[in-house]
Amino acid sequence: TLWSYIVQIANAIKTVHDRGLAVRQVDLVTKIIHTGKNRVRLSTCGVLDMFAFGQMQDVGLIQQHDLAEFGKLIIQLACQNAGAHNALPKAVDTMSRHYSPDLKALAIYLYSKNAFKSISHVFDMLGPARLLQEIDNAQE
Questions:
Q1: DSSP structural state of residue 33
Q2: pTM for this structure?
Q3: Which is it for strands 32-36 and 39-42: parallel, antiparallel or unpaired?
Q4: What residues contact 52, with CB distance under 8 A and at least 6 apart?
Q5: Are 5 and 48 in contact, with CB atoms under 8 Å apart?
Q6: CATH superfamily of 2-139
Q7: Its Gene Ontology biological processes (predicted)?
Q8: What's the rounded Cα separation, in Å, for the pair 1 and 3?
Q9: Per-domain residue ranges of the chain
Q10: Residue 30 — very low, low, confident or very high, per pLDDT cuts 50/70/90?
C-alpha cells in the first residue's frame, strides 16, 4: 500500500513539475486525499501561486521543496507518525526494520537538503516493477 501511495503521489508531482509549476504543499494531514481503495490525490496544488500572482519566484527552488516535502511524507507514512521527520535517526531505524532498503533510500534522497533532486530520478529509484504493479492495480 505504501509503495502504491508513493507511486501515485510521485506521478502527481511529476505531472505538475513537467508543466513548469510546483505543488507547494505535500502535507500528510491536510493535502493528501484518500479517495478509494488505495487511491490518493493531491489537493490545493497551485493555490499558493494564486496568492503570489505576479511575484517573481524561483520555480526550480520551489520544486526542490516539493521533493523534500515528499520525502518527509514518506517518512511520516512509513513510521505512522506525523512528527517522525523531527527525529530522523529514529525514523531511519524504524524504516530499516520494517521496510526495504529501497524505501529508506528513496525517503533519505528526497528529504536530504544536500543534493539537487529530480522527480525523474525518483522514477528511476522506483523501478519499472513497482510502476507496472501500480498500473495493474489501477486496472483491477
A1: E
A2: 0.84
A3: antiparallel
A4: none
A5: no
A6: Transferase(Phosphotransferase) domain 1 (1.10.510.10)
A7: nuclear-transcribed mRNA poly(A) tail shortening
A8: 5
A9: 2-139
A10: low
